[in-house]
Amino acid sequence: NKRPAFVAGFAAETDNVSENAQQKLLRKGCDALLANHITDADTVFGADENKILYVSAAKNAAQTAPHCEPWDKQSKHGVADMLVRKIIQQLEKAAPLNHTSPITTKLEAI
């Protein structure tokens, strides 16, 4: 079974969001994990906006812990756009993308 080039996970946390998300990222073997605090009254399921903690694998051997990047509260479409951009950045680190491809051009235009 071949692993995809990028694996993203999602976590809805009730407490210790950063710590739990980092542990889940490592346990699940994801490249990145998007976590949100579901007990916040304004970021619960069904809301139009969300506040995300983007957790990614350590950037290099000197950095042992996953990298945590809080994203500002924004629309769920905004979160999706930022995730697509992160995926493109990560994939380009592994192998440059063909930016003339219709699929890549469409993703970059989002």
Write the layout of secondary structure elements.
Blueprint: E1 8-13, H1 17-28, E2 32-37, E3 49-50, E4 53-56, E5 67-70, E6 74-75, H2 76-94, H3 102-109
Parallel strand pairs: 1-2
Antiparallel strand pairs: 2-4, 3-6, 4-5
List keywords for this structure.
110 residues; 4-stranded mixed sheet; 6 strands; 35% helix
Write up this protein.
With 110 residues, the protein is an alpha+beta fold. The protein is 35% helix and 22% strand. The protein has helices at 17-28, 76-94, 102-109; strands at 8-13, 32-37, 49-50, 53-56, 67-70, 74-75. It has a four-stranded mixed β-sheet with strand order 1-2-4-5, covered by helices on one side. Strand 1 (8-13), helix 1 (17-28) and strand 2 (32-37) form a beta-alpha-beta unit. The longest helix is centred in the last third of the chain and has 19 residues, at 76-94. The chain is globular. The model has no long low-confidence stretch (mean pLDDT 82).
- Name the structural class: alpha+beta
User: How many strands appear in the DSSP assignment?
Assistant: 6
Strand order of the largest sheet: 1-2-4-5
Mean residue pLDDT: 82
Strand proportion: 15-25%
Radius of gyration: 15 Å
Number of helices: 3
* Most strands sheet: 4 strands, mixed
